[in-house]
Amino acid sequence: GPAEAGTAHPFRAVPVPAPLWRGVFDDTTRAGKGCDIVHVFCRADDPGWARQAVGEIVGQGRLPLLTVEPWAWPGDDEIAAMAGAIRACGSRPVWLRYGHEMNGDWYPWSGDSVRYVREWQRFHAEMPDNVRAVWCVNCQPVEGVGRWMPPASRIDVVGIDGYAQRLFGTPLFQRTLSDVERVLAA
Fold first, then answer.
1. Model-level pTM?
2. What contacts 150, CB < 8 A, 6 or more positions away?
3. How many angstroms separate the CA atoms of 178 and 176, rounded?
């Protein structure tokens, strides 16, 4: 997350000790035994599903990571319903990854960085205090990351998606990590 105010570099890649997180299980709440974080996808216009998934994950004592996909930009009522669904699950942390991989060209929320940043901020401004805002780019961007970044003070976690048989730290991820660090340091 963000460093203390006044530091020159708000984010750093920090290795997490193995006992702290035992892994992330993707796309279901009923499997992934032994994982501490459960990642699920939901549509921005489907708060009922989000409530069920988050409630189930929190009930298992695990951390929910929700990728919220705005296939159409959500209206105020839809954003309020999503916030209410998360609020109904209590005060445990919920990570929300809104409009991921926006710097590519394969999603409808790509293409207009000014609108994306405005919509990202509008969405997160309504979320309860237990939400951690995850901003996540793709490591093989069509465009650089700077235009797509909301103010760093609004970001709790930075993620980089990549789809290749390579390890983190290889040139595939390193270029994007360097771009993100450069933008955050500016």
1. 0.78
2. 117, 120, 121, 124, 135
3. 5
DSSP symbol at 174 = H
126: amino acid identity, one letter: E
Helix axes 113-125, 76-87, angle to 10 degrees: 40
- As a whole number of angstroms, the distance between CA 184 and CA 146 comes to 9
Q: Beta strands 131-138 and 37-43: pairing type?
A: unpaired
pLDDT at 131: 94
Q: Provide DSSP, 103-119.
A: TSSSSTT-S-HHHHHHH
Per-residue pLDDT tens over the stretch 60-93: 888 889 999 999 999 999 999 999 988 887 888 8
CA–centroid distance for 98 within its chain: 6
CB atoms within 10 A of CB 40: 21
